[in-house]
Write a structure and sequence with these properties.
It is built from eight helices and seven strands. The protein has 283 residues and is an alpha/beta fold. Helix 1 (12-34) packs across helix 7 (229-247), helix 5 crosses helix 8 and helix 7 (229-247) runs antiparallel to helix 8 (250-271). GO terms for molecular function: S-adenosylmethionine-dependent methyltransferase activity.
Length: 283
């Protein structure tokens, strides 16, 4: 039987962003579901929302789906990020979605935003979300106090982070061991994040309490991402090489960096049906 496959012809950087957002999208959707966005006690036509660390705009995409289902028209939506490449990706996402008839994107503002120094007045937003961004902050307390500052009275903030990086021991480490046996074993990339406490559900409430937040709730969410083997290998290969560049000797990195993605792809195809990783990601 013949099979067909949709090929992603976007530039490599954008392909990686799109694949990463297949992985972070379910977390964004769950965080929004747990929020007060569709609470009937909230004046839903006056919602002012900041997506902080928007990346390619996946949380905004999930947000627009949610508000559309409930006939809500937010007053203001800002998709903010500090990284210029991410801002370009979000802007392209906006352009593509508007061209596809997704009119909600017309009201989305793309802005350069620093977690630790938000360019907004006190009490500017009813809701602030940061999907997989807070643990990258060098000073997460400053980022949290800034989030608290720009929220309106009775506003709500949502932050997501990875509890574990399950594909690392299940795919990356065995792939390198099997197909690149001469390379030194790499530690988990979770140790490279500036703030590691965000993987500990018991420690997170204290962080938020210290910044002034009340009624803090921590929820754990697990899921299996849906991505083709080629997409998954390309996206995860980027992170593996980031770690390798730090921990391998320069000559080892130069010799093997280009072989990391093929090794990951080979492992996926040899160990998983259709090459799709079936592990569970925990956030």
């Amino acid at each position: 039987m013949a099979s067909s496959q949709v090929l992603n012809t976007a530039p490599a950087d954008r392909r990686v962003v799109l694949t990463n957002e297949k992985v972070t999208g379910p977390v964004a959707a769950e965080m929004l579901r747990l929020s007060t966005l569709v609470d009937t006690s909230v004046h839903r036509q006056s919602l002012e929302i900041l997506d902080n660390a928007t990346g390619g705009g996946i949380l905004v995409s999930e947000l627009l789906k949610l508000v559309s289902q409930h006939s809500i028209q937010p007053k203001r939506i800002i998709a903010g990020d500090l990284d210029d490449k991410m801002l370009q990706a979000a802007a392209q996402q906006k352009t593509d979605c508007i061209a596809a008839g997704e009119t909600g994107w017309q009201n989305v503002e793309i802005a350069k935003v620093d977690h630790q120094s938000l360019p907004y007045l006190r009490e500017s937003f009813t809701h602030l979300f940061s999907n997989m961004g807070i643990f990258f902050c060098a000073d997460d307390h400053k980022a949290l106090t800034e989030a608290y500052r720009v929220l309106k009275h009775s506003g709500q903030a949502g932050f997501s982070s990875w509890k574990s990086i399950a594909w690392w021991p299940e795919v990356a480490q065995p792939a390198l061991k099997a197909y690149l046996p001469d390379t030194p074993e790499l530690p988990s990339p979770s140790g490279m994040f500036p703030v590691r406490v965000w993987s500990d559900p018991e420690a997170i409430p204290g962080k938020l309490d210290a910044a002034g937040f009340v009624d803090v709730k921590v929820s754990e969410y697990t899921f299996t991402p849906v991505a083709e083997a080629e997409e998954f290998a390309e996206a995860t290969g980027v992170l593996v090489n980031i770690v390798a560049k730090r921990f391998w000797a320069e000559e080892v990195y130069k010799k093997y960096a280009g072989e990391v993605e093929p090794a990951l792809l080979r492992y996926l195809k040899e160990h998983y049906e259709d090459g799709r990783w079936t592990g569970r990601k925990a956030s």
